[in-house]
Amino acid sequence: MPCAPVSAFPDPAGLPNGFTTGKSVQYWTGSAWSGTCTTDAGVQRVTLRVTAPGTAWSTVTQSLDIVVRRPCASTSAC
User: Fold this and answer.
1) Are 61 and 49 in contact (CB under 8 A)?
2) Predicted local confidence at residue 2, as pLDDT
3) 40 CB contacts (<8 Å, ≥6 apart)?
4) What is the pLDDT of residue 74?
5) What distance in Å separates the CA atoms of residue 18 and residue 12, rounded to the nearest whole number?
6) DSSP per-residue string spanning 9-23
7) What's the pTM?
8) Cα–Cα distance, 59 to 52 (Å, whole number)
9) Per-residue b/e over 49-63, b at no fewer than 16 CB within 10 Å?
10) From the first residue on, what is the mean pLDDT of each consecutive set of 10 residues in the chain (78 residues)?
11) Quick one: pLDDT at residue 4?
12) Strand 43-52 relative to strand 60-69: parallel, antiparallel, unpaired?
């Protein structure tokens, strides 16, 4: 998905009440990750976050990074 915005990726679902979610996407420039897509290199890093409810001392946040890569085809440049 070339230069897909964060809205193109679904929110985590099926969580108990009180849990919150977040997500972000970064784009590979060929040498580093960037928060904006200027040139589509075909690689994106999507970060999903889930925060469990609690007090200031017991709140827990977990995150998962997923790297999405556009597959190369014989008819397209990679």
Assistant:
1) yes
2) 67
3) 2, 3, 27
4) 45
5) 14
6) SPPP--PPTT-EEEE
7) 0.75
8) 6
9) eebeeeeeeeeeeee
10) 80 86 90 86 90 81 89 55
11) 84
12) antiparallel
